[in-house]
Amino acid sequence: MPCPACDSVAYKVIGSRNRKGRTEDGGVRVYSIRRLRCQKCELIHHELPDCLVPYKRYQADVIETAIDDPGGPSDLPADDSTLLRWRDWFYTLAEHWLSFLISLIRQQKWELPVNGLSDRSLSVRQRIGQMVGGECGWLSRIVQPLANHHYWIHTRSACLSGNG
After folding, report:
1. Largest distance between two CA atoms of the chain
2. Is the pTM of this model over 0.85?
3. How far is CA 36 from CA 1, 17, 48, 147, 158, in A?
């Protein structure tokens, strides 16, 4: 993938770091994430696998299950408030993601349908399903192009000390 800041494709691996992802059974998998530095603009990027969502502690399939089953499956390894936050997070950003996906499809001339995606009689989840497929893995298919093209909005906040 080209660098989202400068479109260069020249990267240098500068190390790696561990990233944890919680699974559906409550276990934790540890992934080694490569750190890449763009040779042109010198920005650092992290290479996430498809099963992880940026800034989320659970794997994409767990979050996907919570979003797809609003009744809240009792066998997910997260508490009710976490499940509610995931659903709120998804429905708050889904229209934004859909707009960026449509834009990317048109810019990159990908062979994906964009007609009918603004049909308000369908839920945003159904419209995203029309675009990337509704079967298992749909969240990963949204995350990858948005993150790779630097359109992923994070909700992480930074704490700054007064010592500056």
Report:
1. 53
2. no
3. 12, 11, 11, 15, 22
